[in-house]
Amino acid sequence: MLLALDVGNTNTVAGLFRGAELLYHWRLPTQREATADGLAVQLLGLLSYHGLSGEDVAGMAVACVVPPLLTAVEQMSRRYFGCTPLIVGPGIETGIDVRYENPREVGADRVVNAVAAYAAYGGPAIVVDFGTATTFDAISAGGEYLGGAIAPGIGISLAALFREAAMLPRIELARPNGAIGRNTVASIQAGAVFGFAGQVDALVRRIRAELGGHAFAVATGGLAPLIAAECETVDAVDPLLTLTGLRLIYERNEVA
């Protein structure tokens, strides 16, 4: 089986595949000071809950945007799972041509998302990823990664609001009843949910215009279902798109 790890700045999403089937997936907080042993305890514990062990994992595919964790992930993979991880980066066969001015600047997760989106929906396509940052990625009709846009993520935007505005409370992010909030909590929810949905629609429309024609837009990330439900431009929601992309890239490199 394949263990796929999407190591983000805020959360790490892990998924266990048997062939093309995603058997289990988990979302964990990313700890920048984590050690190989600590990571192994978490993942082996999750596998054990389902009656599995490290010996059931034959390979590992990793997209990591937290460089200090790369060494720990590599050590964990070799020490506890007996395999060398495939880490998405320069030199890895992805099946997609990156047209960024400096390809090394593109986050591994953005490339992985582009691979999955093009495989599932063809091109042109747009991926909206609600992570620590909200990223917008454009894929051409021929499957080239062209670039995109980066905006502050919902979580860090709200954290900054609560930190800088002493009178505003921390809230649960949920859909409000309307855009006119009748109390502070509802007002913040309206600004966040409808405001970020408007941001998505505005950028997707601009990117579509530059791509030409109707580019299929897919949203991913933990908050994708909540925000995309209020968007007019999002065609599909796949919170686990990155895991699928990691599986595809792993398979392409196994064949290579």
Radius of gyration: 19 Å
Number of strands: 11
Mean pLDDT: 94
Distance between the termini: 19 Å
The CATH H-level homologous superfamily of the largest domain: ATPase, nucleotide binding domain
Please give the share of residues in helix.
25-40%
Number of helical runs? 7
Shape label: globular
How much of the polypeptide forms β-strand, as a percent range? Answer: 15-25%
**SSE string, helices as H and strands as E:** EEEHEHEEHEEEHHEHEH
CATH topology of the largest domain: Nucleotidyltransferase, domain 5
Global structural class: alpha/beta
Low-pLDDT ranges: none
Shape-level CATH architecture of the largest domain: 2-Layer Sandwich
Give me the side-by-side strand order of the main sheet: 6-9-8-7-10-11
Number of domains: 2
Let me know the largest β-sheet.
6 strands, mixed
Name of the top-level CATH class of the largest domain: Alpha Beta
